[in-house]
Structures are given as C-alpha cells and as structure tokens.
Specification:
Length: 416
C-alpha cells in the first residue's frame, strides 16, 4: 500500500517508524514530515492544515491509507473530505473531533452521560467568569474552549493569575474568539489511556504517563510534555478496568448515541483522585509524547490495525511486556521564547530510538527548529533500567542549546 502520514512531530515520527516495518507498506509519504522522518519515506512540502492540497496529493499518488496526526487537521474536517472522495483515512470526523476541539462539547457530553469529570461552568463574559472564580477556592482550572496548541489551560493559584488567564482568553482573544470553561481543581496522579475506537468498539493500549512540568521535581511552567513512560505500577487492574468500561467505552457509546460516532484514537487524559478516576480531558488523536513510548511496545502490524479500525473489523493487538521510557530534549527557554538553528551531533551514537519533534536539515546537518526538539526512547525489563539507558543515550548527544528532565517516571521509580 501507499500510505500518507499527515503531520511532522514526534508522534508522527513514531507512527512512521512503526508503519515502515509493515510488510503492507510499499511507499510512505510524510506531509510535511521532519528531518528524522526523511529516512523512512518521502517528505512532501504540504502543511497539515492544507486539506485541499493533501486531498489532491492522495488522489494523484494512489494513496491507499492516510493517517492523521495533529488535531488541527481533524478540526478542519480532513476526514470528512477524504471519505467524501472514497479514500480510506484513519481519524474521526469533524463532528467527532469536537471532543477535543471544544472543551464545552466534551464537558457537556460527559455531564449528559454521567461520565466522571470535574465540576465546571462555561462563560463567554469576562466579568461573569471573574465573579464565579472569586466565589470558588483556589487553585482554579481555566480552559480555553477551542484548540490552543496545548497552551489553553491555566491552573491559577491566586486571583492575579486567574484575572490574567481570563483576560487573555476573553478580552484579548489570545487563542481566538471563544468561551472559557472554569473547572474545580482535582488532585492525584494523572495518566493517559489511549484506545483504538470504531463506533462502540474500543480497544485499549497500555496506560502511560507524561510529565508536563519543564523541570525536575515537577517544577516550572507547563509544557507539551517533557517525557513519558509505560507501564504504571500505581494504576491497578481495577483502575484499568474502570477507565476502560466506565469512561472510554461509555464515551464511545455516547458519541454514537449523539450522532457523531468516533473512529480513530480516543485519548483519555485521566486522574486517579481520592474519589475515583475522572476525566481531565479528551483528545481525538494519538497523544504526544505518550505515542513515542506506547507504539514501540506494539508487536502487531500497525498498518493492519489502522485498516481494521477504518473498515470496522476487530484488530489484532499484541503488546510487549517490557517497560518503555522516553526523555524529551527541549530548546532552552521552552515553553517560552527560544532560539533555533543549533546543530545536533551524536544522534547516530544513540543505542535506543530517537524520534524527532522539532528538527530541520541545514547544509546536510540536523538542527533545532522547535521548542521540543527530540525524544530519546529506551525499552528495558524495568523502568529504572530504561531510564538509565535513556540518560546514557542523551550523554552521547551534543548540542549547545538543549535541556531535559532527569526524573521521568519518578512516581513509579522513586515513589514520589
């Protein structure tokens, strides 16, 4: 088959890496891809939001399967367009993708179908939102209703932070004109449960946990994720069963009942609170960086899995029992402003796997081009060994403008 992957980050590199090993894959197109993905297939200079151009390319190049990585493409209705032309594409429709593109849609859906989540209210008026926050205890969770590239959630510890967040979202329209969702603050370890979904049929992947804070000890600003790992020893078999049956399957059924059935990967961002597991957020696609530690554990043919989900068949899913851990290398200054163009050397010396997140080629050399630059992934019999291997690998990489966390999986390894 000719396969097209839409996207360019570490998540898409991991998908491309898995698909490149499939005997079903004849040619792999990557739109737009990145410096690391270029060795796996043909990079195509089409952005993930250029739906018309992507559709034309797929038709002209006899693409048999398209896999969508980023949420922006889904929110634009790329799946609807491709399906309308009779093309097989892995991902949810625009209506189904609202479970990520609209926080309000997701929260209202959970409320209607008794899916456990934090209490909330929705506002489009700054003064009304501010008055509500003043009456509530801190911290306050303030979320922009639409897509905001992972930057639309603020956990305000005091009134000053809440006022700034509400001003950014409602008065200054920092992420666009929209509403905000104000939620109660929940406590407990967060974890991610990604599932392949086809209508009411739900097939779980191994649970994973990512680390949002920039620095060791969960200090510093929130990022898109500084590392991830699987398995999670603090998530019991009972926890997994409730998350699957009481949340993910229930949500898939709710989507069918409401006329927007989901096909693709449904990502449950969950929290194990003192009062039970609750939903923090849903995403309508593979998570990043969780994908980079989950897919290396998949021993089945990923291309066949994608086809089975698209065609409504039951996929074969076989998972490795090994631990897998990844550490993100980020540009100094991220998630704030940062410089680009720093050469990266020693990638060929890494013994594990490197998935490129924000890299480019300049004069034949790999250089930094994003906030999160790459993720170094290792598999091992235990998480502690996987972390040791990943840190050893990072020691082989040379670049003058990168930082990383040393304590990925601290909940599991260090018990804190």
């Amino acid at each position: 088959m000719n396969i097209l992957i839409v996207g360019s980050g570490g998540r898409c590199h991991a998908i491309a890496h898995s698909l490149s090993k499939s005997p079903l894959c004849t040619r792999l197109f990557l739109a737009p891809g990145n410096a690391g993905m270029a060795s796996l297939g043909q990079c195509v200079p089409i952005k993930d939001t250029q739906v018309d151009e992507l559709l034309s390319f797929a038709k002209e190049n006899s693409v048999d399967l398209t896999v969508v990585g980023p949420e922006a493409s889904l929110a634009l209705g790329i799946v609807d367009r491709f399906r309308g032309e009779g093309l097989r594409i892995f991902g949810p429709t625009k209506d189904a993708a609202r479970i990520e593109s609209s926080k309000r849609f997701a929260k209202d859906l959970m409320k209607r179908h008794s899916i456990p989540t934090a209490a909330y209210e929705v506002f489009d008026d700054y003064d009304a939102a501010l008055s509500y926050v003043k009456e509530r205890p801190f911290p306050a969770v303030i979320k922009y209703d639409g897509l905001a590239a992972g930057k639309g959630v603020v956990i305000a510890k005091n009134m000053d932070e809440a006022e700034k967040a509400l001003s950014d979202m409602l008065l200054d329209s920092r992420f666009g004109k929209g509403k905000v969702v104000v939620e109660e603050f929940l406590t407990g370890p967060e974890f991610s449960l990604l599932c392949f979904v086809s209508g009411e049929k739900v097939y779980p992947m191994p649970c994973a946990q990512d680390h949002k804070r920039a620095f060791d000890g969960d200090e510093g600003p929130n990022t898109g994720g500084m590392g991830a790992y699987t398995p999670l020893p603090f998530i019991t078999r009972e926890d997994e069963q409730f998350a699957l049956h009481g949340i993910m399957e229930k949500t898939a059924k709710a989507m069918v009942e409401e006329g927007c059935p989901f096909t693709g990967v449904l990502y449950g961002g969950l929290m194990k609170t003192p009062s039970g597991i609750k939903v923090i957020e849903f995403n309508a696609r593979f998570g990043d960086p969780e994908t980079e530690v989950i897919l290396p554990c998949l021993e089945s043919d990923l291309a066949r899995v994608f086809i089975d989900i698209c065609d409504g068949n039951t996929p074969t899913l076989k998972w490795s029992s090994e631990a897998c851990l990844g550490i993100v290398l980020a540009s100094k200054g991220y998630p704030g402003s940062y410089e680009k163009g720093f050469p990266i050397e020693g990638l060929d010396k890494v013994e594990g796997t490197v998935y490129h997140m924000g890299t480019a080629l300049s004069d034949g050399k790999v250089v930094t081009s994003g906030g999160r630059v790459a993720i170094v992934v290792e598999k091992a019999p235990s998480l502690s060994e996987a972390r040791e291997r990943a840190l050893s690998d990072i020691g082989r990489i040379r670049c003058g403008n990168l930082f990383f966390r040393h304590d990925i999986a601290h909940w599991a390894i260090d018990g804190r």
